[in-house]
Amino acid sequence: MAIRRVLVVDDSRLQRRILVSSLKKWGFEVAEADSGEAAMEICATDPPDLVLSDWVMPGMSGLEFCRAFRALENRAYSYFILLTSKSDKNEVAQGLDAGADDFLIKPVDADELRARISAGDRILGMQHELSAKNRLIERALEELKHAHEAIDKDLIQARKIQESLVPELSRSFGRSRVSLLLKPCGHIGGDLVGMFSPDRNRLGFYSIDVSGHGITSAMMTARLGSYLSSQHFDQNLAMERRFNRFFALKPPEDVAATLNARLLADTGIEEYFTMVYAVADLRSGILKMVQAGHPHPLMLRRDGSAEFLGQGGVPIGLLPDVPFTRFETVMQPGDRLLLYSDGFTECRLADGEMLEPEGLLDLVRSCDPERGGQEFLDDLFWQLKQVMSPDHGMEDDVSATFFEFGVNELA
After folding, report:
1. Which of 48, 150, 256, 266 has its Cα between 20 and 30 A from that of 175?
2. Does residue 140 form part of some domain?
3. Is the residue at 225 inside a domain?
4. For the stretch 220-251, what's the b/e string if a residue is b when 16 or more beta carbons lie within 10 angstroms of its beta carbon?
5. Which of 133, 156, 187 is the last residue of a domain?
6. Rounded CA gap, 172 and 328, in Å?
7. Residue 90 in 3-state DSSP?
8. 317: alpha, beta or left? (left if phi > 0; alpha if psi -120 to 50)
């Protein structure tokens, strides 16, 4: 039983003897007090499971004793029954407000008392069970808190590792320049941007978006970062050694095919990714690209015109032996090319609609025309945040690669 110890409080010695006799016969441990003050001394050191208290007593009344008893900081809940000759509804309401759980009309009937104690025992039993479950929940929440803190710490470190995949956010290649933007929507993301150049006349750069979000996507970007390393050309799948003397860039379509075969050969991997990979001849301005399910590259001509390039293509890692088609264009000094992830075009606006490519073009045109390189990308991202829905925020990673051809020559 939940009720083991009972405190009987009554200024009538006879009434206490009658109650104590019944309670002991039923197997309860019983303590007595002849006043509310004496009862408070007992409750302060050894609170009972059940209190049976008379309402009308000299000094501290049963109602006052009930309020004082409830004010004690007891770890466990105690059931409180007021013994009273009062049956008026207002007086019963006063007792409930003071913290009483039940009432018995004097003279007390033994069977009714036993039934009321049984009802209180059921309530205390449920309360004890609830307290035990709450303690389990508190321990589980504390363990989850520690686990979350550990995961959060790991994710912060993972973000640093992921940032190391993009060691330079802006770099000049002769008279041209490549700038990068990488803004994950969480600690880590599934977007990757990069650039590499085996010699002064050739440049490769890309924009990648791995399916999904979170840890799995971030692990895939780490793998792709090693496949397209800007530090270790011998590991870069987009390069090949010629005559054991120098490295050359492979055709973009071959790079896409190699990545597709490599990804499909890895069993257990369900992720795929979209990509635009471009190779630029820094002398002639010839630009060769492959688009694999990625948003259409945006060409910004020096004369102010703009056009979206490419035909779409199939994402990498979905189908075996799929052909990837190369397309070409020629850039003039002052022309700029923007590769971007769908974190831009699928950004949700305040009206619930998506930005779409046309909206991106509007953002580009609203940027300061005097700004280039990293400043342009920072301005573009700031413009995006101004139109972004405050209710949705960044729902996807946002990234971009910005290639400016011959800008230093014009300067």
Report:
1. 256
2. no
3. yes
4. bbbbbbeebbbeebeebbbbeeeeeeebebbe
5. 133
6. 22
7. helix
8. left
**CA distances, 296 to each of 72, 197, 290, 300, 379 (Å):** 70, 23, 10, 13, 21
Instruction: Judge if 118 and 175 occupy the same domain.
Output: no
In a domain, 174, yes or no: yes
Report pLDDT digits (tens) over 326-344: 999 999 999 999 999 999 9
**DSSP string over 29-49:** EEEEESSHHHHHHHHHHS--S
Q: What length does the chain have?
A: 411
Domain ends where: 133, 156, 190?
A: 133
Please enumerate in sequence order all residues whose Cβ is within 8 A of that of 73, keeping only pairs 6 or more positions apart, or say none. Answer: none
Could you identify the residue written with the tokens 């399916």?
A: 211
CATH number at residue 82: 3.40.50.2300
Residue 389: CATH number of its domain: 3.60.40.10
Q: How many domains does the chain have?
A: 2
Side-chain-facing half-sphere of 366: CA atoms under 13 Å: 15
pLDDT at residue 317 greater than cutoff 90: yes
Cβ proximity of 2 and 10 under 8 Å: no
What is the residue range of 100's domain? 5-133
**Residue 410's pLDDT band (cuts 50, 70, 90):** low
Q: Which whole-number Å values give the CA distances from 110 to 25, 116, 123, 394, in the listed order?
A: 11, 10, 20, 69
Decide if 218 contacts 158 (C-beta within 8 A). Answer: yes
Whether residue 345 is found in the same domain as residue 240: yes
In which band, very low, low, confident or very high, does the pLDDT at 409 lie, cut at 50, 70 and 90? low
